[in-house]
Amino acid sequence: MNTEIVARHPEIDDTLRRYVLRRVRSAINQLSTQIKNITVKLDRRTAALPEQRNCMIEIRIDGQAPVIVNSDGPHWLSAIDLAVESAARALRRQLKHTLHQVTPLQLLKGQHAS
């Protein structure tokens, strides 16, 4: 699984990038081995809301629609934490929905991953 962090602000340093990776991995990586890619975009809001920070997380899963979550906060850590928690909940819901569509025979044969 590939985790990519996209940020174009000088205030987003290596420490914040490591924080993002640690939070994403602890909350999301354990949920599915089917995750192909996670993209985290950190950005400031438009001129209308210059003090708001935005964190967008997109999770791509094999054979399913991507999970996309946006969260805003007054600080980077609050925006990141809200986005990670929302993404983990959305991913759990999607995976739970997928498992309810799988028959027990498919589970035994290992066909649920496709």
From TrEMBL:
InterPro entries, alphabetized: RHF-like, RHF/RaiA
Pfam families reported in the protein's UniProt record: Ribosomal_S30AE
Name of the protein: Ribosomal subunit interface protein
Organism name: Limnobacter thiooxidans
